[in-house]
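Mods, move this if it's the wrong board.
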Amino acid sequence: MVIGMEKYRVIVKGVIQYEDKYLVVCKWYDDRVAEPYQWEFIDGVIEFGEAPDKAVIRLINDQTGLSATIDRILYTWSFMIGDEFSIGISYLCRVTFDEVVLCEELKNCRWILKEEMSEFLDNKVLEDIERADLK
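Not the wrong board. Structure tokens:
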């Protein structure tokens, strides 16, 4: 094993809650798949030297205009693509108002109830949410 050749990436995800609803956003992923736009929670890669807690708050604000506070970590995940290993941390974040101003990269957003998540999110995210015991 060669030390220093590994490629790591840390991703944070903000599961944003306002009252009894959660924010999902529609993002473009890849035009080589049947549905290039997919629904997801806010997420992104942390900047070098940035704390994950600060990164999730920054990404939420940058992508939605919302000012959020962290409630707790919900779950973690990891995956590997090629020689890059990604580690993810999902946070439950709360906001006090629901007026969203989307960044240009996002196509749409909706506030949904927990019971509606299966209509928008893929099975892997739904499994993670179920294990997190989102209330």
